[in-house]
């Protein structure tokens, strides 16, 4: 039987792999609660729709060959912390960086709060490294 921490980590991994990388909207709808709030949204509006649109309309066009590496996940109580990196070719503008046509890495430390297997809140620290 999985512990709550293991279940929460599986949800976070699914969100990262299925929605963030593969753009699977079914995964997004099944995982993100209606009242979700992204406390560190780069575009200022942290509701669930703005979060979805940021990934689909800004991240993926900027890095169409997006790949993900998860270095570590730590879960405690209702939170999961993920240390990860996205890499891809910076083909469009993204978070103040102009398109370069070169590989770029977006390193992130996320904190996700879950309730009943759903994303309720999110905080992150992001660092863009262009090569």
Short description, anyone?
The protein has 131 residues and is α+β, with helices and mostly antiparallel strands. The chain has helices spanning 4-21, 25-31, 48-62, and strands spanning 32-38, 67-76, 79-89, 103-115, 118-130.
Question: What does the model show?
Answer:
The chain has helices at 4-21, 25-31, 48-62; strands at 32-38, 67-76, 79-89, 103-115, 118-130. The protein has 131 residues and is of the alpha+beta class. The chain has one domain: Nuclear Transport Factor 2, Chain: A (Roll). It has a five-stranded mixed sheet. The chain is globular, with a radius of gyration of 14 Å.
Q: State the CATH topology.
A: Nuclear Transport Factor 2, Chain: A
Number of domains: 1
Number of helices: 3
User: Helices and strands: which structural class?
Assistant: alpha+beta
- Mind telling me the C-alpha Rg? 14 Å
* Overall pLDDT metric: 94
Spans of at least 5 consecutive residues with low confidence: none
Shape descriptor? globular
Helical content band: 25-40%
Pfam family, one: SnoaL
InterPro entries: Cyclase_SnoaL-like, NTF2-like_dom_sf
Organism: Chitinophaga arvensicola
Protein name: SnoaL-like polyketide cyclase
Helices and strands, with pairings:
Elements lengths: L3 H18 L3 H7 E7 L9 H15 L4 E10 L2 E11 L13 E13 L2 E13 L1
Parallel strand pairs: 1-5
Antiparallel strand pairs: 2-3, 3-4, 4-5
Helix pairs in contact: 1-2
